[in-house]
Amino acid sequence: MSNIMITRTWTCVLLISAIYHAAAGLQDLTALKQKFEYKHSFKGPSLVNSLGDIPFWEYGGNAIPSWDQVRVCPSIHSRQGWVWNKVKFAQQDWMVDIKLRINGRMKTGADGMAFWFVEEKSQGGSTFGGSERWKGLGLFLDSFDNDGQQDNPKIQIVMNDGSVSYNHHVDGVGQDQLSCLKEFRNRPHAVRLHIIRIRGTLEVWIHEGLSQRDTDYDLCGMISTTPNVPSEGYFGLSAATGGLSDDHDVISFIVHSLTPLDEVKVELC
Q: Pick from 107, 104, 222, 220: which is nearest to 154 by CA?
């Protein structure tokens, strides 16, 4: 491929990215090189291999992978499941796009789902199927209103240095660094999370699944990630049910590393 063709292709990629992020109100990423990290991602169809495994991922508890999705936790009372990337992610800046469905037959569901970027993986635990104490970032989709304050369902960020246990009795209030009330259960279309960590800042956007338009994202919030988010760690997902239950399904988990263009090494032919 000629240098001219490479330049045109990369320009088109940046232009498409600029249009998408500008329309959605998301952070402009055109000054960054986005590299798809296939060893840290999964999506259907053909999500599992012939052995029923997810390449570069491990799962346990009640998680059920299939050809088009991972049921992280099924709609059965008092169950939990988890999915963890086998490969530690070592890039400072990254972008994760998650497409998911949380569905149940009741008006109220439980307990919820978690996205993790942490120093060490866990296999089950009391925090939405994850460890009670963790070092790193936990993003929670909390379905059930434990404290009766009518502040669920919500998305919540809790960064932890490993010294604090998540307080389910008050839904983590006072422990969280970011929280927003958003609907994510029983939506007509898949819910999408867009999580960006760049230059020590974390942005969380949500598409509530009311349409299939790529521009219908709302900002949940933006916070500093220092010092409790590790510079390298493991991506993971977990989910749990209690007295009430939902199906917690992840359709795709896509990771891109982000590098400022002025730091990209140019190889001359």
A: 220
